[in-house]
Design goal:
The complex is a heterodimer of chains A (116) and B (117). Chain A is an all-beta fold. Chain A is built from no helices and eleven strands. In chain A, the strands form two sheets. In chain A, strands 2, 4, 5, 6, 9, 10 and 11 form a seven-stranded mixed beta sheet that branches. Helices cover 0% and strands 50% of the residues of chain B. The chains are: A mainly beta (116), B mainly beta (117).
Chain lengths: 116, 117
Protein backbone atom coordinates (compact mmCIF):
# COMPACT_ATOMS: atom_id res chain seq x y z
CA UNK A 1 0.00 0.00 0.00
CA UNK A 2 1.12 3.54 -0.73
CA UNK A 3 2.47 5.60 2.17
CA UNK A 4 0.55 8.66 0.96
CA UNK A 5 -2.91 7.83 -0.34
CA UNK A 6 -5.19 10.17 -2.25
CA UNK A 7 -8.86 9.66 -2.96
CA UNK A 8 -10.44 9.88 -5.43
CA UNK A 9 -7.80 9.21 -8.07
CA UNK A 10 -10.03 10.53 -10.82
CA UNK A 11 -13.09 12.73 -10.62
CA UNK A 12 -15.26 14.49 -13.14
CA UNK A 13 -17.60 17.11 -11.77
CA UNK A 14 -19.66 20.06 -12.94
CA UNK A 15 -19.18 23.76 -12.45
CA UNK A 16 -20.51 24.94 -9.11
CA UNK A 17 -20.29 21.58 -7.36
CA UNK A 18 -18.47 21.12 -4.10
CA UNK A 19 -15.71 18.55 -4.16
CA UNK A 20 -13.29 17.20 -1.60
CA UNK A 21 -9.98 15.51 -2.26
CA UNK A 22 -8.70 13.47 0.63
CA UNK A 23 -5.18 12.57 1.63
CA UNK A 24 -4.00 10.17 4.30
CA UNK A 25 -0.47 9.13 5.16
CA UNK A 26 1.19 6.39 7.16
CA UNK A 27 4.66 7.96 7.17
CA UNK A 28 4.16 9.70 10.51
CA UNK A 29 5.17 13.06 9.04
CA UNK A 30 3.93 16.30 10.55
CA UNK A 31 4.15 18.41 7.43
CA UNK A 32 1.59 18.01 4.67
CA UNK A 33 1.04 19.90 1.44
CA UNK A 34 -1.37 20.24 -1.45
CA UNK A 35 -0.02 21.09 -4.91
CA UNK A 36 -1.69 21.33 -8.28
CA UNK A 37 -0.01 20.54 -11.57
CA UNK A 38 -0.87 22.22 -14.84
CA UNK A 39 0.89 21.67 -18.16
CA UNK A 40 3.67 24.19 -18.67
CA UNK A 41 3.40 25.49 -15.12
CA UNK A 42 4.85 22.70 -13.05
CA UNK A 43 3.55 22.18 -9.54
CA UNK A 44 2.19 25.09 -7.54
CA UNK A 45 1.54 25.08 -3.81
CA UNK A 46 -2.06 25.52 -2.68
CA UNK A 47 -1.91 24.99 1.10
CA UNK A 48 0.46 23.52 3.62
CA UNK A 49 0.26 22.44 7.24
CA UNK A 50 2.84 22.05 9.97
CA UNK A 51 0.50 20.12 12.25
CA UNK A 52 -3.21 19.84 13.04
CA UNK A 53 -3.32 23.39 14.46
CA UNK A 54 -1.37 24.99 11.66
CA UNK A 55 -2.74 25.81 8.21
CA UNK A 56 -1.04 28.13 5.75
CA UNK A 57 -1.93 29.49 2.33
CA UNK A 58 0.37 28.77 -0.53
CA UNK A 59 0.88 30.47 -3.85
CA UNK A 60 -2.60 29.77 -5.27
CA UNK A 61 -5.07 29.29 -2.41
CA UNK A 62 -8.00 31.28 -3.84
CA UNK A 63 -10.98 29.03 -4.45
CA UNK A 64 -9.66 26.28 -2.18
CA UNK A 65 -9.89 25.40 1.50
CA UNK A 66 -8.28 22.67 3.56
CA UNK A 67 -8.85 20.74 6.74
CA UNK A 68 -6.24 18.93 8.79
CA UNK A 69 -8.42 16.45 10.64
CA UNK A 70 -5.54 14.57 12.21
CA UNK A 71 -1.80 14.28 11.83
CA UNK A 72 -2.33 11.73 9.11
CA UNK A 73 -5.19 13.37 7.20
CA UNK A 74 -5.26 16.52 5.10
CA UNK A 75 -8.24 17.30 2.87
CA UNK A 76 -8.58 19.82 0.07
CA UNK A 77 -11.98 21.26 -0.79
CA UNK A 78 -13.25 23.18 -3.76
CA UNK A 79 -16.40 24.88 -2.49
CA UNK A 80 -17.70 25.77 -5.94
CA UNK A 81 -15.64 24.15 -8.65
CA UNK A 82 -14.86 26.03 -11.86
CA UNK A 83 -13.34 24.74 -15.12
CA UNK A 84 -9.93 26.36 -14.57
CA UNK A 85 -9.53 24.18 -11.49
CA UNK A 86 -9.21 21.22 -13.82
CA UNK A 87 -5.76 19.87 -12.94
CA UNK A 88 -3.78 17.06 -11.37
CA UNK A 89 -3.66 17.50 -7.60
CA UNK A 90 -0.93 16.11 -5.40
CA UNK A 91 -0.76 15.66 -1.68
CA UNK A 92 2.73 15.45 -0.19
CA UNK A 93 4.39 15.01 3.17
CA UNK A 94 7.82 15.80 4.54
CA UNK A 95 9.97 15.14 7.57
CA UNK A 96 12.57 17.79 8.46
CA UNK A 97 14.46 15.23 10.49
CA UNK A 98 15.15 13.11 7.45
CA UNK A 99 18.85 13.56 6.93
CA UNK A 100 20.71 16.82 7.15
CA UNK A 101 19.23 19.71 5.19
CA UNK A 102 16.97 17.72 2.93
CA UNK A 103 13.24 18.30 3.15
CA UNK A 104 12.37 15.83 0.45
CA UNK A 105 8.66 15.68 -0.34
CA UNK A 106 6.89 12.34 -0.49
CA UNK A 107 4.00 12.47 -2.93
CA UNK A 108 0.72 10.69 -3.24
CA UNK A 109 -0.25 9.23 -6.60
CA UNK A 110 -2.25 12.28 -7.61
CA UNK A 111 -5.94 13.05 -8.09
CA UNK A 112 -7.00 14.05 -11.56
CA UNK A 113 -9.93 16.46 -11.40
CA UNK A 114 -11.96 17.59 -14.38
CA UNK A 115 -14.50 20.37 -13.97
CA UNK A 116 -16.99 20.62 -16.84
CA UNK B 1 10.22 36.55 -10.99
CA UNK B 2 10.67 32.88 -11.71
CA UNK B 3 12.45 31.15 -8.89
CA UNK B 4 13.12 27.98 -10.86
CA UNK B 5 13.61 28.05 -14.61
CA UNK B 6 13.73 25.03 -16.85
CA UNK B 7 14.33 26.35 -20.36
CA UNK B 8 13.90 23.06 -22.22
CA UNK B 9 10.23 22.10 -22.61
CA UNK B 10 11.28 18.96 -24.43
CA UNK B 11 14.45 16.98 -25.03
CA UNK B 12 15.27 13.76 -26.77
CA UNK B 13 18.25 11.48 -26.49
CA UNK B 14 19.38 8.22 -28.01
CA UNK B 15 19.38 5.20 -25.77
CA UNK B 16 22.70 4.67 -23.96
CA UNK B 17 23.78 8.27 -24.44
CA UNK B 18 24.06 10.90 -21.69
CA UNK B 19 21.69 13.86 -21.47
CA UNK B 20 21.72 17.08 -19.46
CA UNK B 21 18.52 18.76 -18.30
CA UNK B 22 18.96 22.40 -17.41
CA UNK B 23 17.78 24.16 -14.28
CA UNK B 24 18.56 27.64 -13.02
CA UNK B 25 17.31 29.10 -9.77
CA UNK B 26 17.01 32.42 -8.06
CA UNK B 27 17.30 32.98 -4.34
CA UNK B 28 18.98 35.37 -1.94
CA UNK B 29 18.90 32.87 0.91
CA UNK B 30 22.35 31.35 1.52
CA UNK B 31 20.76 28.12 2.72
CA UNK B 32 18.70 26.20 0.21
CA UNK B 33 18.25 22.80 -1.29
CA UNK B 34 17.76 21.68 -4.86
CA UNK B 35 15.81 18.61 -5.93
CA UNK B 36 15.03 16.71 -9.09
CA UNK B 37 11.88 14.65 -9.47
CA UNK B 38 10.83 12.33 -12.28
CA UNK B 39 7.22 11.97 -13.38
CA UNK B 40 6.58 9.03 -15.72
CA UNK B 41 3.44 8.84 -17.80
CA UNK B 42 1.68 7.05 -14.95
CA UNK B 43 1.78 10.36 -13.06
CA UNK B 44 3.58 9.65 -9.79
CA UNK B 45 6.39 11.88 -8.58
CA UNK B 46 9.67 10.07 -7.98
CA UNK B 47 12.49 11.74 -6.07
CA UNK B 48 15.82 11.41 -7.87
CA UNK B 49 18.52 13.52 -6.28
CA UNK B 50 19.21 16.31 -3.79
CA UNK B 51 21.90 18.98 -3.51
CA UNK B 52 22.33 21.24 -0.49
CA UNK B 53 23.69 24.74 -0.98
CA UNK B 54 26.61 24.05 1.32
CA UNK B 55 27.48 20.67 -0.13
CA UNK B 56 31.03 20.76 -1.42
CA UNK B 57 30.61 17.98 -3.95
CA UNK B 58 28.09 17.43 -6.67
CA UNK B 59 25.41 14.92 -5.70
CA UNK B 60 25.28 11.57 -7.44
CA UNK B 61 22.72 8.76 -7.29
CA UNK B 62 23.44 5.88 -9.61
CA UNK B 63 23.08 7.12 -13.19
CA UNK B 64 21.96 10.55 -11.99
CA UNK B 65 24.30 13.36 -11.10
CA UNK B 66 23.67 16.98 -10.36
CA UNK B 67 26.01 19.51 -11.93
CA UNK B 68 25.85 22.22 -9.26
CA UNK B 69 27.34 25.55 -10.25
CA UNK B 70 26.59 27.84 -7.35
CA UNK B 71 27.96 31.07 -8.79
CA UNK B 72 25.86 30.59 -11.92
CA UNK B 73 22.86 29.43 -9.87
CA UNK B 74 22.45 26.34 -11.96
CA UNK B 75 21.65 22.79 -10.94
CA UNK B 76 21.58 20.69 -14.09
CA UNK B 77 20.62 17.03 -13.98
CA UNK B 78 22.85 14.66 -15.90
CA UNK B 79 21.52 11.23 -16.79
CA UNK B 80 24.19 8.87 -18.01
CA UNK B 81 23.57 5.85 -20.22
CA UNK B 82 19.94 6.72 -20.94
CA UNK B 83 17.38 3.95 -20.89
CA UNK B 84 13.95 3.77 -22.48
CA UNK B 85 12.45 3.89 -19.01
CA UNK B 86 13.96 7.33 -18.49
CA UNK B 87 11.33 8.80 -20.80
CA UNK B 88 9.34 11.04 -18.49
CA UNK B 89 8.77 14.58 -17.31
CA UNK B 90 11.54 15.91 -15.06
CA UNK B 91 11.06 18.68 -12.52
CA UNK B 92 13.66 20.78 -10.79
CA UNK B 93 12.64 22.20 -7.41
CA UNK B 94 14.13 24.39 -4.70
CA UNK B 95 13.66 24.67 -0.95
CA UNK B 96 14.60 28.08 0.41
CA UNK B 97 16.01 28.17 3.91
CA UNK B 98 17.24 25.34 6.05
CA UNK B 99 15.37 22.13 6.44
CA UNK B 100 13.29 22.06 9.60
CA UNK B 101 10.82 24.67 8.50
CA UNK B 102 7.91 24.13 6.23
CA UNK B 103 10.13 22.71 3.50
CA UNK B 104 8.01 24.27 0.81
CA UNK B 105 9.35 23.31 -2.58
CA UNK B 106 9.10 25.64 -5.56
CA UNK B 107 8.97 23.76 -8.85
CA UNK B 108 10.02 24.57 -12.37
CA UNK B 109 7.76 24.01 -15.35
CA UNK B 110 9.43 20.73 -16.21
CA UNK B 111 11.28 19.15 -19.13
CA UNK B 112 9.83 16.24 -21.05
CA UNK B 113 12.53 13.76 -21.98
CA UNK B 114 12.08 11.20 -24.72
CA UNK B 115 14.61 8.40 -25.03
CA UNK B 116 14.78 6.92 -28.53
CA UNK B 117 15.98 3.35 -29.22
Amino acid sequence: DADVTQTPRNRITKTGKRIMLECSQTKGHDRMYWYRQDPGLGLRLIYYSFDVKDINKGEISDGYSVSRQAQAKFSLSLESAIPNQTALYFCATSDPNRGPNTGELFFGEGSRLTVL
Amino acid sequence: AQKITQTQPGMFVQEKEAVTLDCTYDTSDPSYGLFWYKQPSSGEMIFLIYQGSYDQQNATEGRYSLNFQKARKSANLVISASQLGDSAMYFCAMREGVSGGYNKLIFGAGTRLAVHP
